[in-house]
Design goal:
This protein is an alpha+beta fold. The chain contains 2 helices and 6 strands; from the N terminus they run βββαβαββ. A hairpin with a 4-residue loop joins β2 and β3.
């Protein structure tokens, strides 16, 4: 376990927006992989974007958190190899995808699934795996 490092950066949304201690890290770094926890559209101070924000804006906020966490882990967007996107409505796919393409220019492997509900009632959550 000595080769496993937990990542925390104040430049991204806290791991879980609760008042209790959490068992979740923003990311875990191993010698070969960076695992970034699911990021919701929230600011580094934990403020969730309003429901009136567009899916593109929400997607960009998720990716901004991912970018900050990867930087804290010594990695970057160009080292992402797998992305999982969770949407509460697949009708948002095209708008999410248009924003996503601006940031993941290396075209990592990706899954996108519709889910019934996400934390804090958000519409989109994104997690990823990257190389260190």
């Amino acid at each position: 376990m000595a080769d496993i490092k937990k990542i925390f950066t104040k430049d991204a949304c806290p791991a879980i927006l609760t008042t209790r201690p959490t068992a979740q890290s923003q990311a875990i770094v191993t010698p070969t992989t960076v695992y970034v926890s699911g990021q919701i559209p929230a600011t580094a101070t934990g403020d969730v974007l309003p429901s009136s924000a567009s899916i593109a804006e929400k997607t960009a906020a998720c990716i901004a958190n991912i970018r900050a966490i990867l930087a804290a882990a010594g990695s970057g967007m160009d080292k992402v190899v797998k992305v999982n996107v969770f949407l509460t409505d697949m009708a948002h796919f095209a708008e999410m995808n248009a924003e996503y393409e601006k940031h993941f220019t290396t075209r990592p492997a990706r899954s996108c699934v519709a889910v019934k509900q996400l934390p804090k009632g958000v519409d989109v959550e994104i997690e990823c795996i990257a190389l260190p």
